[in-house]
From TrEMBL:
Keywords: Metal-binding, Zinc, Zinc-finger. The keyword Glycoprotein does not apply. It comes from Mastacembelus armatus. Residues 10-52 form the RING-type domain. It comes from the Eukaryota. This is RING-type domain-containing protein.
Amino acid sequence: MSLCDDTLLCNFTKCRTKLSGFAWVTACSHVFCDQHGSGEFSRSPAICPACSSALSGKLDIVRTELSPSEEYKAMVLAGLRPDIVLDICTRALAFWSYQVKYFSLYMYSI
Ligand SMILES: [Zn+2]
Ligand SMILES: [Zn+2]
């Protein structure tokens, strides 16, 4: 299985649904479907349901569109220095490989 041919799954224990549309991403490297993200993170302080981390920072929880528009992709990193662009890409790829390694469908089919 390559890193790319997988879809992230909701990290909520009883859910594990394939994520599409919007997903809630946390600073502790977890990701949740729109239903569980909006439910769990509407209370304050927000606690990650996967690892119990307190998520109090402004960017500790981000609601992300998983298939962003061409316009968004064209603009979101424009203007940033190449080292910052690469830094962001590296972190996003690390998040993805962590998710695929620990939460992929494959883990649940063996
Ligand atoms: Zn869910
Ligand atoms: Zn977490």
